[in-house]
Amino acid sequence: MRKTILSLLIALTSFVATAQTNVYRAEKEKEHKLIHTKLKVDFNFQEQKLNGEEWLTAKPYFYATDKITLDAKAMIIHEVKMNNQTLDYNYDNLKLIIDLGRTYSRNEEFTIYLKYTAQPEKVKQKGSAAITQAKGLYFINPTGLDKNKPTQIWTQGETEANSCWFPTIDSPNQKTTQEIYITVPDKFVTLSNGKLVSQTKNGTNRTDYWKLDQKHAPYLFFMGVGEYEIVREQYKNLPISYYVSKEYAPYAKEIFGHTKEMIGFFGDKLGVEYPWNKYDQIVGVDYVSGAMENTTAVIHGEKAYQKPGQLIDQNVQENTIAHEVFHHWFGNLVTTESWSNLALNESFASYSEYLWREYKYGVEDADAHLLEDVEGYKNGQNFDKHLIRFDYADKEDMFDAVSYNKGGAILHMLRNYLGDDAFYAGLKKYLTDFKYKAAEAHQLRLTLEEVSGKDLNWFFNQWFFGNGHPKLEISYDYNKLQKTVTVNIIQLQQGKEFKFPFAIDVFEGSKATRHTVFVNGKDASFILPYNNHPDLIQVNADGVLVSDVVENKVLSDYIHQLKYAKYYGHKKEALLEVAKKQDDKNAFNAVANAMNDDFYKIRMLALENIDLINKNTKKAVISKIKQIANNDAKTLVQAAAVETLGKLTDPELQPIFEKALQSKSYSVIGKGLVGLYYVDKKAAIEKSKAMPDEIRKVLATPLTRIFIEEKDESELPFVAKHILSGMFLTNIAKDKAFYQKAFEFIAKNDNTEAIQNLVDDVVVKGNQYKQYGFDKVGVNLLRQMVQFQGKANHSSRNKNEAIIKEAMAKLLQ
Predict the structure, then answer these.
(1) How far apart are alpha carbons 576 and 611 in whole angstroms?
(2) Which pLDDT does position 244 carry in this prediction?
(3) Domains of the chain, with CATH numbers?
(4) Helix, strand and coil in the chain, % to nearest 5
(5) Which of 189, 308, 361, 800 has its CA 20 to 30 A from that of 653?
(6) Which of 476, 469, 492 is nearest to 526 (CA)?
(7) Is the entire prediction scored with pTM above 0.85?
(8) Per-residue confidence (pLDDT) for residue 773, from 0 to 100
(9) Which residues contact 342 (CB under 8 A, 6 or more apart)?
């Protein structure tokens, strides 16, 4: 599972208090062992129900028993039989307890037949931050009333939601083979796990038969139904397909095209070839998360859909694609035995994003990605959470920035400590020993110890079974006679001491000498030699250790760090510090020089922070920014340059902005449009209104700014769809204030279409982020809208109030 972006969720934490209940969450006891699951299903689109038949083969796990308990949520059970004999059962709408008729020993298999109706709309269980609903089976526009939305069906099983559409033992420590017959109207295609064995037409319907002969967990079962175009590729003998809408079929290979290379790269890196018989990816409308690694049948949210104008900037789904591919080893081949051990799935999948970027784009790019993940972990309320957690309040709480972000960073530290050879040899053995089984973190530890010969108990205790990270205070004592520097390290965090390897670079000019020490204690000191007095001491020089560092650095230290540091995180830190003091000529020049950095994210950061207020004294730098705007190899850097020039509001720059509007990059076009607006409003507005809808959607942020500043009431319905994202996704105070103003402007307006669009978005986001309290935030926003309308003096007031109150009632349900 790949989460949706957490920016909005982090912004919402100020609205909600988090409560934890210390309840021990054990692995689910295995009373029975699933063997095989055979399903026959069809759909009642009108009533959003599934008609199902199931043949479930199982046996007692160890102890003899005469009953079996299945998870079956909100179903109508019509028949339960074995060998054509009706079986007695008890059903409470969650658990189906079946009397087997006699006692079975652990060596005796039995097959139960069930006929049932699944009713996903009656499921009561809640979702999570990563998976916003948990009804298992989703009908999208099932009656076709919405002409702007396709009719689709898709499933989402993690954590325990597939038991909303077929009875099973819905636990990650179960594994079963499967076959499924899916009957649909002939106009639809289907997708499920494994191989499509046959297709049989029956009048206007068709039955597709899918089969997977390898065992996997019940939460990984998948069905997808809809009118898709299937774009096919192949890696060696492995079939690969992309199920996309007709509109995006021409771009499917550009969106998903690295899939083949990822499968090959990960297989080579792990020493274990891709273990399944195909790899398909499908895009689901209104999907409830980022993506899900259903075995051989991955589903992505609509964020995956991108046009060439977006892909030229960056493929925003690429990390997610890598994440789900890697799950086919970590999660699908070897599965966490319990949700407490979720990190065995998600930490590895998150770290795969680093591995892919390191291989494809280089170490600096991968480090930048991992730093963003670590910052996401630190920005949340996560310090007290263990990676392996047996005391969560709800299993859905495990899908957080600890299991994902911090977990990936911990694996990076583990790889660094063991070395690549031992790390990958250990993973190969772990995957081989536990293939098609479930595992826990101790088994990973023992396997890595067996391979490397190292004791890893201390590492797992503090990073997997412990919480937090080191908070370090660093100071330096120089001995000029002996030409040594003593690096003093004090751990400031309360309650525990960490021990860890620690990289320290001693810079003499541009030359850095790397020293790797091992910190073991709350107060540690290390004496390091030098030839000439160091220009900079850089601790955590490789950026591997997850930590907070406090040290006293002056401007000259940061300027040196910006120019010579090896690790992206240190360059970024230095650039942001130097940018605060650009009234100093050396600082300004350092920021300006960073615009030439080899790594595009540093160039962007320099452009975003360069101070050009006194533009007359900085003509050479402005000339350089013009060149970047026209010629940089990365369109995102071009866009940053255009945006920086736009802040000057200089009519002489109009040709730059007009040229930007001819770019293939939507980012460059958007920045050019805003830049043009401040030097030629009329031209910018004309071009904004003339843009095709597909580009307007992508450029919602700059267009919203232009239309609001113009108070263009004809564009209010468009603007209303994007205000909430602007209010909560931006971290810049002045931008938040701007969107708050825009919200009030629409809330007071008589434009009923705009009011409807805004309240619809409030309801969607209120439900989507309900677990973060956004339903309450949404209700407060709607109450404000009612007050604004009540004070307004226009003929649509009563109608608009009714629309808002109806939306409020939906959120209060």
Answers:
(1) 12
(2) 98
(3) 32-129+154-220 (2.60.40.1730), 333-464 (1.10.390.10), 471-552 (2.60.40.1840), 699-813 (no CATH)
(4) 45, 25, 30
(5) 308
(6) 476
(7) yes
(8) 67
(9) 336, 398, 399, 403
